[in-house]
Design brief:
It comes from Oryzomonas sagensis. The protein is of the alpha+beta class. The chain contains twelve helices and seven strands. Strands 1, 2, 3, 4, 5, 6 and 7 form a seven-stranded antiparallel beta sheet that branches. The longest helix has 16 residues.
């Protein structure tokens, strides 16, 4: 079994025993992952050396760190990584100890496989660590791949461990040094032209008809698609001032709050949307996800997920929700 004593990094005993879908061809990007594996420090065989925990994020209850020396490349082209979740204080530690059923809980480790090309993940293992680095329990995960939620700790980890291919064929001679006059326009240029056109058109509509709720919604959606959360939040605020009980806008604005790191306001939006539309599947999914992965309120998350499955059991999202319950259910 895997051993952990606080000085030696987590070792995956059966690293090659992953489920392989033999009916599916390996993704094209797998080959490119192999080419760049060495530059990432990813290995195909062997064990991890001394732990190199790198601070990653802070949630409402945990400091999250990533072990960059735990990276491996699986036969399916997924990158594996360990994350460490350390409670921020004694109240948070006791709460986690109750959730995991281990009174001596001090922290826990989570072992993920990340599909960099698809931006999905599967949680394979959870190790509960007690005093002196002793492993108290191991929980096995598995299940279907789930989408990595933007802005989550796992999303930040994926950005660190996944290679970027966009510029890999550009030679040094082709790299241009930006002119200082272009600095102000850099962020705007990153937004696709089609989205920038939508933003401009929606802005014109809101200026001509400030009382047009649909125009403010359209502007918020354009900023949303342009990955500009603060501008989207402000546009949605204007739309909600005109029609406060729009569950769809509340959900979209909640997603932008979450992307900007304001998990409490994101959850408030999703819960308000759910009160307005009790059978809204998007709201149920969002309430469960934020409670689970941002606020570590697994009881609330499971409640939302079970309600979701009462309404939908066949969609792709329902399969993800079922996977969450199997993974985190008690």
């Amino acid at each position: 079994m895997l051993q952990y004593n606080g000085a030696v990094g987590p070792i995956l005993e059966n690293a090659g025993e992953f489920n392989v879908n033999r009916g599916r061809a390996l993704p094209y990007r797998f080959v490119r992952l192999m080419v760049l594996a060495a530059s990432l420090g990813v290995v195909l065989q062997g064990t991890a050396a001394a732990i190199q925990w790198r601070p990653l994020a802070r949630t409402a209850r945990h400091d999250v760190a990533v072990d960059m020396d735990s990276l491996k490349l699986t036969p399916l082209g997924r990158v594996t990584v360990w994350l460490r979740f350390t409670p921020l204080g004694e109240p948070q530690r006791k709460l986690a100890a109750g959730e995991y059923g281990e009174k001596q809980y001090r922290l826990h480790l989570e072992y993920y496989e990340i599909d960099c090309s698809e931006q999905t993940d599967v949680l394979e293992l959870i190790d509960i660590i007690g005093p002196d680095g002793k492993r108290l329990a191991r929980m096995k995960g598995g299940g279907p791949l789930a989408a990595i939620f933007p802005g989550s700790a796992l999303d930040l980890a994926a950005k660190q461990v996944c290679p970027s291919f966009e510029d890999e064929t550009v030679s040094d001679d082709e790299v241009e040094t930006p002119d200082s006059n272009d600095t102000e326009e850099a962020s705007t240029q990153q937004v696709p032209e089609e989205v920038r056109a939508r933003i401009a058109e929606a802005l014109q509509k809101t200026q001509k008809s400030p009382g047009n709720q649909a125009a403010w919604r359209e502007l918020g959606n354009a900023y949303y698609d342009g990955d500009q959360p603060q501008q989207a939040i402000e546009a949605y605020d204007r739309a909600l001032a005109l029609v406060p009980d729009d569950a769809d806008i509340l959900n979209d604005q909640g997603a932008m709050y979450r992307q900007s790191g304001d998990f409490t306001r994101a959850l408030a939006n999703f819960e308000r949307a759910l009160k307005i539309a009790p059978y809204n599947l998007e709201s149920l999914y969002n309430v469960g996800y934020v409670n689970a992965f941002d606020l570590n309120r697994m009881d609330k998350a499971r409640e939302a997920w079970r309600r979701y499955l009462e309404l939908d059991r066949t969609s792709e999202t329902a399969l993800q929700v079922q996977g969450f319950i199997e993974r985190y259910g008690k």
